[in-house]
Specification:
Chain lengths: 299, 358
Amino acid sequence: MVDATQTATAPLDPVAAPVRSEGYWRSVWRRLRRDKVAMTAGGVLLFILSLAVFAPWIAPQDPLHGTMLMRLRPIGTEGHILGTDELGRDMLSRLIWGGRLSLLMGVTPVIFAFFIGSAIGITAGYAGGIVNTLIMRTVDVFYAFPSVLLAVALSGALGAGLGNALLSLTVVFIPPIARVAESVTTRLRSSDFIEAARASGASALTIVRVHVLGNVLGPIFVYATSLIAVSMILASGLSFLGLGVRPPNPEWGLMLNTLRTAIYVQPWVAALPGMMIFAVSISFNLLSDGLRSAMEVRA
Amino acid sequence: MSPPDTSRADSARPLNGAGEALLTVRGLKKYFPIRGGILNRAVKRVHAVDDVDLEVMRGETLGVVGESGCGKSTTARLLMELIEPDEGELIFDGCKVGSRELPLKEYRRQVQMVFQDSYSSLNPRLTIEDSIAFGAQVHGTPKREALARTHDLLARVGLDPARFAGRYPHELSGGQRQRVNIARALALRPRVIILDEAVSALDKSVEAQVLNLLTDLKAEFGLTYVFISHDLNVVRFVSDRVLVMYLGKVVELGEAERVYTHPQHPYTAALLSSMPSMDPDHRTEEPPLAGDPPNPIDPPTGCRFHTRCPSIRPFCATREPPLADVERDHAVACHARVPASGYHDDAAAVPDPEKITA
């Protein structure tokens, strides 16, 4: 018998290779490419990232040395297109080099938190019941702290330094990611195809690997992308408070802190690191928004 | 496709359900707790399935009917061991499920299920062939072999593997998806398939095609079906025996035609009379039953149907009628059908439930 919805003419030919449909990620990429805002944001990020990566070759001057004679020059000074900071160091070079640490501090904690938080959340969501309650209530204890406060407190307790700042930021981002992972997994767990997989006798681990991960990692990933902006701002905040990167290393948050005293002398120069933070954060936000809508497929 | 196992195929159709029980259910109970108050304790319980006994005969189609919320789907999930029963046991082919002779994983190979929602029962991120082959791979079949069988099955359910195997669920129509679900259920070579409203969501023409497919597959693979549906016509069409549920209880169980033509329980009679008639002279002018079924959180005492029954006696509210045979292979849980119940002692006029049908 032939289904009314398919053409009756096609003969059954088991030898022919099956028609491969466009894979999910490929279709996401196709939709994302049509999203002008997301693509622009992606372009900006790519540009700033390559500036940071190739900083030694791109930066016109040494970011760590300057002369006091040339301190706090305005934008457009000859030899210092974006002016100089309070120690006479070239702002353009410092901004380019600063991208390295700022991006590192923005992205790394989120990557670690993505893996750890997803593992926690998926375990809690799939296990359900008392295991879920135990895990999620513990997570909630951390979530209850305002993120800035928690990051500052942890960094302060662990001591200043890049590694400790990264560690404390990771801890800050695990709870929100775990909560998202848990809610997505819980919603998925009751769907019929998970029941069907259980009915076929598969173990929990197999079901999570084959049926859960592919469906929950996408939404968690989108959420994590939006956290990168927060992470950058928090990292800058930690550096601003002297808990992250230490002088004389260039980092946008730290630069913002030291230049804040010069805000009445050279307001535009002082604002530059803040603008960089803003540009990167909003780009990550726009990109994750685009990603979210590109990943929503409902036929 | 391997030829069907002859030992299964020859058990084709037990007459009047006089076959051998393949799946026996004893005292199945499932109460869902409603939590609340301090300490999140169970304050009340939904009596979803309450002390159900049933036998599924080898090679038959057992239809299960009842209103929404009467415990049909819970029964299906209990039969599949997808939820743990509070009480009761399943005996499959002489072995207790979960025992050493028949571990759960092995039982699940024998009994498969097709769900109502064809879309949510397929993983949207997996291709059709990966979804179908998954079960076999879980049971240790190498991927190549599992895929080869998947393609055979797809062809068998009427989907050209060359065109459909590599597709994703959202690219298929509802009828095609339900065929995929049937193919997946068949992939483990089960002996029993539980069809939980499997055709209810399809439109009528596709429904008929899928029903025909199910009939063909049953003969070809020597399958036994538990067919759960709220659609009385469909159940009559496919079933050898019919089980009627009301508020988590079995109220009537018997050979399908007999139940449809001579319902013994007043609820069954009312249910059947609610079917729209094709004859304009036999319009259903009034609803045969008033009101909604009582809340399963606090089911009525005694006979659960007494709150809506057209012919009750005072003791119906206190004494629960057992499921007892009224004729050969026809059991009913109603005091009015049991001579020794005392029902006929205190009143002369006993309304005939078949009159309700008219």
